[in-house]
Specification:
Elements lengths: L6 E4 L6 H9 L5 E4 L6 H4 L6 H4 L3 E4 L7 E2 L6 E2 L4 E2 L4 E2 L14 E4 L2 H14 L5 E3 L6 H8 L1 H9 L6 E6 L16 E7 L2 H7 E2 L4 H13 L3 E9 L5 H15 L2 H6 L1 E6 L2 E2 H10 L12 E3 L4 E4 L1 H18 L5 E4 L1
Parallel strand pairs: 1-2, 1-3, 3-8, 5-9, 9-10, 10-11, 11-13, 13-14, 14-18
Antiparallel strand pairs: 4-5, 6-8, 7-12, 15-17, 16-17
Helix pairs in contact: 9-12
The structure holds iron/sulfur cluster.
Iron/sulfur cluster binds next to strand 7.
């Protein structure tokens, strides 16, 4: 269970039930009042070496921007929701931005306002819309602190139409199992070879736990997606990903295998990651490989086209061998 070292909070949070609840829950934890969760000067000034220490704090505020962004992958909209950032430390995390500005976990207590907007748009739409509510954080992790996911599912179930979806790397799903979700929630579990999880996805659930969580969620009636992501082309990647796909085929339940869909995403990386990882992790930066990566504008890297194409062919072959009947929504 995550126990914050300190809580940075905006004063207005006490105007919301969840804000009051969190202040009470963490009454023993030192608190620092802040003006704006988006701009905590003390955090911005810290060096990259402090990256992991900073993630031991919890920031609580009110979300002011509620702009939905069109999406064309597995949802219709990316929706800013109840949290941003995370307490885990995946070395490639796509939420690492502007050095130390926003990698730590920030909770937003105005959940009623955010969910009301989703429900309104879902009910007014001419077709069934899917809302991605987990693109800024990991909601299964967040739920262990706020119970927000349980609250969300219970309050969304009576909408006329619409679905919610989110990805996760965590296995603490038991509180979701008894809920009456009305088939409106798609959980997308992200997996990687065990060796990669252990070395790179620090602070997340291990592969075994994630597989068990998928089976339990399916048994509880949730729609399941599986993200093989991010695919990291380490030296022995072929062996690792072949083993992973085989293991999934052996350990996922028949119910999951019947209709789970897959998303496959290659790792992208950045100059900022290399700097933080070099300075904050004992292992240094183990992900950047200049032989097979190339620049992609504004300090970003991705795998060279030819490398990526060959890897895609290999992964499709493996998927064909072990999951021939399952849909691959996309490989990017
Ligand atoms: S679990 Fe997700 S949000 Fe958290 S550090 Fe890893 S990639 Fe980032």
């Amino acid at each position: 269970m995550f126990k914050p070292k300190a809580i940075y909070f905006e004063k207005e949070i006490t105007n919301y039930p969840l804000g009051k609840e969190l202040i009470e829950k963490y009454k023993e934890v030192p608190k620092i009042e802040i003006e704006n969760h988006n701009n905590i000067e003390e955090m911005r000034k810290k060096s990259n070496k402090e990256f992991l220490n900073m993630k031991r704090n919890l920031i609580i505020g009110v979300r002011k921007t509620h702009k939905f962004v069109d999406n064309h992958k597995t949802s219709d909209y990316l929706v800013p929701y109840t949290s941003s950032g995370c307490t885990a430390s995946c070395m490639y995390c796509y939420l690492v931005c502007n050095y130390n500005k926003c990698a730590y976990l920030r909770l937003f207590v105005n959940r009623e306002q955010m969910l009301d907007k989703i429900i309104k748009i879902a009910n007014q739409a001419e077709k069934e819309l899917t809302f991605e509510i987990g693109s800024n954080s990991d909601l299964i992790l967040e739920n262990t602190i706020t119970n927000n996911l349980v609250w969300t599912i219970e309050n969304f179930k009576n909408t006329k139409q619409g679905k919610l979806t989110f990805p996760t790397k965590f296995d603490m799903v038991d509180s979701m199992l008894p809920l009456d979700h009305q088939g409106k929630v798609i959980v997308r579990m992200s997996v990687n070879p065990e060796e990669i999880i252990n070395k790179v996805e620090l602070g997340t659930s291990r592969l075994q736990g994630r597989i068990e969580a998928i089976n339990k969620l399916k048994e509880a009636g949730y729609e399941i997606g599986i993200l093989i992501a991010p695919v990291i082309l380490v030296e022995n990647w072929k062996e690792l990903y072949q083993e992973l796909i085989k293991r999934l085929s052996e350990e996922l339940s028949e119910k999951v295998k019947k209709d789970a869909f897959f998303e496959i995403i290659f790792m992208t990386y950045s100059y900022i990651h290399t700097k933080i990882n070099e300075e904050a992790f004992e292992s240094g930066d183990i992900l950047y490989n200049k032989e097979i990566m190339t620049g992609r504008g504004r300090g970003k890297y991705w795998y060279k086209n030819q490398v990526r194409e060959e890897a895609e062919i290999f992964l499709r072959e493996q998927m064909n061998k072990y999951f021939a009947k399952n849909k691959i929504a996309y490989i990017v």
